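anyone seen this seq b4? input:
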Amino acid sequence: MMCIVILVSPDRMCIVIIVSPDRMCIVVIVSPDMMCIVIILSPDMMCIVIIVSPDMMCIVVIVSPDMMCIVIILSPDMMRIVILVSPDIMCIVIILSPDMMCIVILVSPDMMCMVILVSPDMMCMVIILSPDMMCIVIILSPDMMCIVSPVERVTVASAADVFRTVKAKCTCT
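predicted toks r here
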């Protein structure tokens, strides 16, 4: 009872639908420009969507029955972005760059935002942004020396600059 359906349109759009006996469904869509979309539906309503573009940018979206959503974005330069969204609208974004710099962004339903940056040398920076845009920056060095600097109205980009500056000072001393 394995069922495979292949549809090819005149513009060379190709759709492949595979349904297994256990009601697992896989849909593969390939466009003429080599954009590929893979959709996997399991009987328990777990949904996985994989999108691969011609430039090898890959996006993976996983949606579980309890509406937990995970988005994984892989770029050709090995930059990885992971986004987790839970049913209570808690959002977690994890960004991993090729130089092993890790950025974790947590956004709670009350719009409280926390940004955690971890560099390859295990220097850790925590940025807490409250809804009133008050920003608290906490920098932890590998030896667990803690530096706290409350700053008002700082952006994530400028906070990253603060991180690099303080990190440079820490390595100099």
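DSSP finds one helix and 14 strands in the chain. The mean pLDDT is 68. kinda curious what u guys think
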